[in-house]
């Protein structure tokens, strides 16, 4: 077996599954190519948690957590500057090769608690604006500005008057939405974790347990395999499925004959999310549920047939609703399918307001809504979706 190239070997790190430096360099190069074409000198991203805040991790392989902001300047040339929660006035100079701060040349700190302490809202903006002015950037791209803390985004607009602030969200999203071979490998491994976890849950669940006991065990199993974040839903109801319940609502006792909705939506290797959802029955599956599943499977297959490279996400959504409603089904008004990666929901969305079209190597969660859980992940191939990433049978699972 030939040796793995040095650049493909993750450096020593405290992270369980760091992304390779080669993968980070691919992202940086692709982004800079587009920045040059757009005349952008630097990009600013900010994230504050690792369920729906993956931009800072996409550039630096470091997630934001606990609603603490991580703000990053990604320049057209040179090393990144990052601002994290920490002591007033603290700075660290790096060479870009720190194993946990690859590509970062300077770290600044401020004790910002934007989500709870209003008067800290502009601390990061002041530091980032200072660095932008010092560097002499004339055009700065803001990525997902609506997802930044208001004090940060509004602060930059005020502090950077005279500098052009432009929307660079699509510029980054169009790269980020198409997964690399390394990213796809991480996604496949996360899906395999969820398959294994679902099998263990099925052997664990017993009448008399509370719903939260099932979710807590699922989270324990996921964490022991290296997951750091996610949703773990268990909701039970007699005879027919009930709606998904958050952890603070999962206090019902599971009884014989109950129908359970299980959703495992967590990240795994590299921090990449997939999701697996199935319906379980504490006994025999009634015919009514079998009929629901048959309709959902037919809908999922129909939707998969629409996910071809070049297809407009808006058009897919329109065709789905027209067809399903003509068959007597319900109109989808929330989200039909969606991308997943560093976020549990990311672009593209299969919805009326999405401007993207489907491209090869996009990764989507496909979850038709029809009473029973049927949630799986797919990678788009040259002619449409490939095999389902999950191997858990698309059936209602009977428990003794």
Give the count of structural domains: 2
Approximately what portion of the residues adopt beta-strand conformation? Answer: 15-25%
- The tally of strands reads 16
Q: Termini distance?
A: 47 Å
Mean pLDDT: 95
The CATH topology of the largest domain is given as: Creatine Amidinohydrolase
Tally of contiguous helical segments: 9
Report on the biggest sheet: 9 strands, mixed
CATH architecture of the largest domain: Alpha-Beta Complex
CATH superfamily of the largest domain: Creatinase/methionine aminopeptidase superfamily
Gyration radius, rounded: 23 Å
Low-confidence region ranges: 1-8
What is the helix/strand order? HEHEEEEHEHEHHHEEEHHEEEEEE
- Assign the CATH class of the largest domain: Alpha Beta
Globular, elongated, flat, extended or rod-shaped: what is the shape?
globular
Pairing-aware structural class of the strands and helices?
alpha+beta
Helix content: 25-40%
Please describe what this structure looks like:
The chain is of the alpha+beta class and 400 residues long. The protein has 2 domains: 6-176, Creatinase/prolidase N-terminal domain (Creatine Amidinohydrolase, Chain A, domain 1, 3-Layer(aba) Sandwich), CATH 3.40.350.10; 181-399, Creatinase/methionine aminopeptidase superfamily (Creatine Amidinohydrolase), CATH 3.90.230.10. Helix content is 32%, strand content 22%. It has 9 helices and 16 strands. It has helices spanning 21-38, 55-60, 123-135, 150-159, 169-176, 181-204, 211-224, 287-306, 313-326, and strands spanning 42-47, 70-75, 80-85, 91-93, 104-110, 139-142, 164-167, 230-238, 258-267, 273-282, 337-339, 346-349, 363-366, 374-381, 384-385, 397-399. The N and C termini lie far apart (47 Å).
